[in-house]
Design a protein that fits this description.
The structure is a homodimer.
Chain A lengths: L28 H11 L28 E12 L3 E6 L2 E6 L7 H9 L5 E10 L14 E12 L16 H6 L1 H4 L3 H24 L3 E2 L10 H16 L3 H7 L5 H7 L6 E3 L5 E4 L5 H9 L4 E9 L11 E10 L3 H15 L13 E3 H8 L13 E2 L10 H8 L3 E8 L2 H4 L2 H15 L4 E4 L9 H5 L2 H11 L6 E8 H21 L12 E5 L4 E3 L7 E3 L12 H4 L10 E6 L2 E8 L4 H11 L8 H8 L5 E7 H9 L25 E2 L2 H4 L4 E3 L10 H15 L7
Parallel strand pairs in A: 3-5, 6-9, 11-16
Antiparallel strand pairs in A: 1-2, 1-4, 2-3, 4-5, 7-8, 9-10, 10-21, 12-13, 13-15, 14-15, 16-19, 17-18, 19-20, 20-21
Chain lengths: 705, 705
């Protein structure tokens, strides 16, 4: 649901660093490598073990003066025939090309090797001559006086330079991903990811006795998996509002859900005719069964699969930090995750403060109009209904007479100064077309010429009451809308985010990219009324979610009022994790499935049976690793924290996967391609040509994604 | 190629612990849990963080006397109404059921809860009365005086008891895998696996600066992958002999190899008609490209896929420890792996001595008749040709006249005592039917009535020369065979292993199950003559393997003589890993592909291009994690070190995967099932019934696998 105005180029993912107000720039290789080394890599880590080099290029300092070193790296840069800069993953070092006759062969080698050639040099660490130090380079005080050099591999002309500031299309980056990954930013991202995951493992395995258990990825499609899919959809912004949410939940039976939606499970044909494995969207069933199995602290960095066709910011395979515990309550899981994130948080970021703040689902919807609020800035939704209890304005009167009728507003700080008339037009159009709802800007500056109809209708006391309640300044603009509660909240929640983007695009600093706001959203409803028949209920997340302990009695009387023990973890307005305490009692599970949800319990009989065989109380959570690392590194896309991502159409542009296969390849699986004209394997040559020519069309430009 | 005699029940996998001579028994839960805790779990690990319990059941000792504790666990056992034994993953503890009136409700709960119910008890740690201590139980000096108890979940009648000594069919174990996993042996296996993997990660990531990088599993079928498949086949015993090996290599082009063989890559249909992903058999291409990308120390605990149809001891998905390094040589990789295994080796096993011994491929074939020798026992193959240079025995004369003719023997210690006539008949039959080769047993005891024809033909000096050369004892039997060198070695290599099994089945201790013999096998040939045209060459492993540095000059003159930089790691006669230094020079790679192998280089153009863009020298290795953990734990099958394994037919018996899917489920993938009668989704009920009834047929009994 993109806003229609062209100014809003930045998408939700980029919110924290895009726009002119953001100060983050990709770190230079030297700096980034140093930062990473200092912070996350342990001192005991030996980067030079087993290999021929004595040191990495980036680690040498004045303290190494006089040492004879052997370095291996890529030629980054050459200044005349005097110096060359050698690069490895750890940084840059200046190498002095020897000029004397006796070293003519070394000079020739170092002067003639093309850039990005791989060389090995042995020499002495010396001081740079006074005045030639480079304070911007971590190794800038020293250089290498070369004695011997060896060309390990020569480099041909590259399709692009290995420099972060070099602009290249994403299609080109993906085709030559192995060159793209040489850039310092990608090195930083993937190394940081590895370090964070390692710290998470230390925390879970070594500090808290978790067992890392691998679960199958060749599984089968089951109701549980479908429910997970829905939950994922909801979590990832396809349905952050109740309205959309219930729309997605509008199907009646488990088996019917999937075909109604975009997300599907990949199928893997087996050698038995008609039988397929499926690639699971999460290990949900296995982790619950592991609890029944007595592995009371399970975790896995789990590869999951989801076929959503062509969607930006989705990957057909992704990774989640999957956790389940027995004998645990919601607070326990929350403490565990807070500890986990604090422990694994990169040292070059501001340390995390725990516990994270918590907010109920109801509050989140009320104040932020979404279940994943970005709490880095204010502009909260305020209920101003009371001001208009005795208003003369007719349409406001009408709204307040309705049972769910409400009047709410948000305040755009400096809105009169930074936003233009066309922005407000766009806002109004957006509200009408997406929510069928009127929204009125209220300009507070008396001299303001751009007065909305509402401004004229308002009594002075109403206006001053508004200004006082909203603590509004003269330059601010209020956005006021009246209508049904949930619609109003949702609309203002959207407008809050879009106006923040607009303000930041105009230079206002609202969200510091160095700041990370974690937030728990809790007390979701356990059930929601079905869209098509509100007298019936369906699970808000999945039918295994346990009811809130205080509400269990309501399960049997007023199930629609039961809050759940589901919790979401939100970071800077993105949901990065979610989980719940599960039902461990077979009878309660059966009651929920049969009586409340009117489901066919036979479909879940093996889970019910497992619960009957001594299932302990248990609960868990899953964190989206790609998204988390993306937010932590400030990468513009999750593709920038994945070594070999797929394009938004699900293609690997380097290898051209997926590709045509021969009929022999699929013959053992008793399947055939439905369109006969493409069944046969194309000639290899034509396939390669197709790859080359289609490169430019496959990916959108980075700015658009 | 199983031996035909019925006595040889144990398969290669079981060799180290099956048979009456083996002393390993599954550890009792208390012991195993204690051992695991003491050895591999760090002292800093807090098993009680975040949860309601204060202690695990297994950790309490006399030092806890007087402490009030809260425990959660499963009721393992109850003695009258006096005691119950509570179990968690950590061990067992005795709980005293209170007998006084005031605790009647606690007594009732603890007496009435069925076995395997989950309870929480709070009470005081007290000493057991004198004489009632149980020294076999780690917690045997103490017991719990209960104050309060809560039934967390009641347990219905289980399909089998949770006791290791309870015999149950593997089909039943798999159907109720979550119950099977409660057993102490499975808990031990999976926890040990997790701990070993964690130690490996510490070693790689923290001690040596490796970067954990996830590579895609939705990829495409490529020549490289096919070659990996072949290598895997060879490694896993389908072709341990050159003869079989070249048979598998008998196809001429990459694309033709796969359809000829059993192993295939799973295909995953995409939403583009006719285009498929494939699930890769290893990350080989990605790891080499990561070297080009400058990630000079990569590792991944990688999920790999291989569709081999129904084969015992194979899993359609498996895990390998995948490693690649830049600027490394063969010695470097070997040292790295030795350090890795030593560091991650369980503390309850005998510590590993490094470096591991090394043997050339030629030596291995010569002495053990296989490229993965089990060096835990002798019975080496000895060349006795010289003894027969002037023999009067005609068929031996004839053999020695042939260019590759040889006479070799192995000595079966105590063979005359332990083996029976029918055993020798079976040995002879095996040699004829599998190798078309005569083998003659030679009984050394003069009183031995079971004299073979050869025994009668032998001159006394020949016999005494043999006895002297073989250092044979009176009760020993020599197996002598004459023929073409490789055939003779292969046959005697097989017979050596089978005779060892026979001897062990008769009570002879040949291989101590507590002993682990690692062995490097090195200097494999780089190329082998093609079976169907020995004037042409093909890669012995894969075309990316680098030639041995001393043999590079031969590449251009006598390529058939070039040794490779490939290395295999063998443990107790099983290959658990293999790797090589790769070719990093595009020209050399092109020469090998085009001139030596006569391949179409276009198929590998992207790899050649990457080598041209500054590829560093690099090499790597992959360890088969499932196999390694299986050998370390002494499990009878790799299924016992995998949480949710598939049956040998590739089925998940718990969920009944793979299963029929609806036509809607596959419709977006433009495929259809070839046999129309099974295209439609079966009625759920009938599918469930089918699962139930087919359980008993799907898996072979454990003894057979």
């Amino acid at each position: 649901m993109p806003l229609p105005w062209g100014l809003c180029l930045v998408n939700r993912m980029c919110r924290s660093w895009a726009g002119p107000a953001r100060k983050t720039t990709p770190p230079l290789l030297g700096c980034c490598a140093r930062r990473l080394t200092l912070s996350t890599q342990k001192r005991t880590s030996d980067l030079n073990s087993f290999v021929v080099r004595t040191n990495t290029c980036g680690e040498l300092r004045s303290s190494h003066l006089g040492q004879e070193v052997t370095l291996c790296g890529w030629i980054q840069y050459r200044r005349q025939s005097l110096f060359l800069v050698l690069r490895d993953f750890h940084g840059l070092i200046q190498v002095v090309i020897p000029q004397d006759e006796s070293a003519a062969s070394v000079k020739k080698l170092l002067c003639e090797a093309p850039l990005e050639s791989v060389v090995q040099v042995t020499g002495t660490v010396i001081s740079r001559p006074p005045g030639q130090e480079n304070p911007k380079m971590p190794t800038g005080e020293i250089e290498i006086e070369v004695k011997t050099a060896e060309l390990l591999n020569s480099c041909k002309k590259l399709p692009f330079e290995i420099k972060d500031f070099m602009k290249k299309t994403e299609a080109l980056r993906m085709k030559y991903r192995y060159l793209d990954l040489r850039g310092s930013q990608m090195q930083y991202n993937l190394r940081l990811r590895s370090q964070m995951v390692m710290k998470m493992r230390e925390y879970l395995c070594n500090l808290h006795g978790f067992v890392d258990i691998e679960t199958p990825t060749l599984f089968k499609k089951t109701p549980g998996e479908l429910l997970q899919a829905l939950e994922f959809e909801r979590r990832n912004g396809n349905s952050s509002f109740l309205k959309e949410f219930t729309f997605y939940w509008g199907s009646t039976t488990w088996t019917q859900i999937s075909p109604h939606k975009g997300a599907k499970e990949f199928v893997v044909p087996s050698r038995e005719p008609g039988k397929f494995y499926s690639l699971p969207q999460s290990p949900q069933q296995f982790k619950q069964l592991l609890m029944v199995a007595g592995f009371d602290r399970y975790f896995q960095i789990a590869r999951c699969y989801r076929d959503e066709g062509s969607k930006p910011e989705r990957q057909p395979e992704f990774t989640q930090v999957d956790i389940e515990m027995s004998f645990i309550d919601q607070t326990g899981i929350q403490k565990l995750i807070e500890g986990l994130l604090q422990y694994s948080w990169p040292k070059d970021k501001n340390p995390l403060t725990i516990p994270f703040p918590s907010m109920t689902y109801t509050e989140a919807l009320d104040i932020y109009g979404t279940d994943k609020p970005d709490t880095r800035f204010g502009m909260k939704i305020v209920d101003v209904s009371d001001i208009f209890r005795n208003t003369a304005i007719e349409f406001l009167q009408d709204v307040l007479k309705e049972p769910q009728g409400t009047i709410k507003t948000i305040c755009i700080p400096g809105g009169a100064k930074y936003l233009q008339s066309k922005d407000f037009e766009a806002i109004k159009k957006f509200a009408v077309s997406n929510f069928n709802q009127e929204v009125s800007p209220l300009f507070l500056k008396t001299s303001e010429s751009r007065k909305s109809p509402l401004t004229k209708l308002l009594k002075e006391e109403e206006k001053s009451a508004l200004v006082s309640l909203m603590k509004a300044q003269e330059e601010d603009v209020l956005l006021l809308t009246a209508g049904e509660y949930k619609k109003v909240c949702s609309l203002l929640g959207k407008l809050r985010l879009e106006c923040a983007d607009l303000l930041e695009a105009r230079g206002v600093v609202l969200r510091d990219p160095a700041v990370f706001h974690f937030l728990w959203v809790v007390e979701f409803p356990l059930f929601l009324p079905k869209e098509e028949d509100p007298t019936e209920l369906e699970s808000a997340h999945h039918p295994f979610t346990a009811p809130h302990p205080s509400d269990i009695h309501l399960l049997y009387t007023e199930p629609e009022k039961v809050r759940s023990q589901h919790y979401d973890l939100v970071l800077n307005g993105s949901e990065i994790g979610g989980g719940s305490i599960r039902i461990h009692n077979a009878e309660q599970q059966q009651y929920v499935l049969e009586t409340v949800l009117k489901e066919d319990v036979k479909l879940l009989s093996h889970l019910l049976q497992a619960l009957d065989f001594g299932a302990p109380p248990h609960g868990g959570i899953a964190l989206g690793l790609d998204r988390l690392v993306c937010l932590v590194t400030g990468a513009p896309s999750i593709r920038d924290v994945i070594a070999f991502p797929k394009s938004f159409r699900g293609h690997d542009l380097m290898s051209n996967a997926p590709d045509y296969v021969s009929s022999e390849d699929i013959e053992p699986y008793h399947i055939q391609v439905k369109r006969p004209e493409v069944t046969d394997r194309k000639d290899i040559k034509s396939v390669i040509c197709e790859t080359e020519s289609s490169q430019q069309l496959v990916l959108p430009s980075r700015a658009k994604t």
